[in-house]
UniProtKB/TrEMBL annotation:
It comes from the Bacteria. PANTHER family: ABC TRANSPORTER RELATED (PTHR43335:SF11), ABC TRANSPORTER, ATP-BINDING PROTEIN (PTHR43335). This is ABC transporter ATP-binding protein. Residues 7-233 form the ABC transporter domain.
Amino acid sequence: MTEAHVIELHRVAKHFGKVEAVRDVSLSAGAGECVALVGHNGAGKTTLMKLMLGLLHPSRGDVRVLGHDPCAGAFAVRRRIGFLPETIAFNPALTATEMLRFYATLKREPRSVVAPLLARVGLAAAADRRIGTYSKGMRQRLGLAQALLGEPALLFLDEPTTGLDPALRGQFYGLIRDLAGAGATVLISTHALGELEGVADRVVILDRGEVLADGSLGELRRLAHLPIRVRVKVAGPHAAAPAWLRDAGQAVNGHHFDLTCTPDTKMALLRRAVESGSAVDDIEVAEPTLDDLYAHFLSRGDAR
């Protein structure tokens, strides 16, 4: 493993009988990087996480986490890792405080960290309630608290925002940005693609155990070369709009024209709109979303 990489996988495969859950995957992640694994059910996301956690042995290839083979189970490495599984179950008879103290003992963390952690995930007021009375969202936040024990250098989050309302999702991703900003490496597996913009530094798109694309949103947009949607609002009626705009755009809603362009021609189009002066009131640019990119790379994978 190179010094800059917290995670490094080289040509990793995992077979379950005749089923190839992961096929020839190579990827890496550095300190302070937030990487998202996206793909439909069965794409290999959870299997990859379990390989990196040492819960599964690879059928082929090499996995290194924090410089070590995760299957070796070294405690010094494991205590630097936090994990929130997709489905988490706690003893319903225990309180959140009691449960988190139990996990703190396993990680050899002092009990004094429990109360601040519960406050950090918004459970301070419910710290002494039995977990059996918790809503799904509250149990999810408790799961995040146990994953954050010990200020992990590496955090694995499998479908972490399940059961959280929009406000709590925003708080959750704020925590993730803070952790990455402090140097932690964060690996997120999720179906909620729209939540990742502004959070993930890189997106790894998986399909049938293979990596279809790996890069920042900007890099994926350049690779996909999908059309960019531009809406131009004009000051007067459509008939009074500049001739180039009437020729190039589709008139909608009385004072708007919708156009599309490529990444290479976007700036030329915007300059032309600005040069139209008072004839143009406003310009809205809609880059391809992660949902658009995911659909594009998935269809390209299906065509192979």
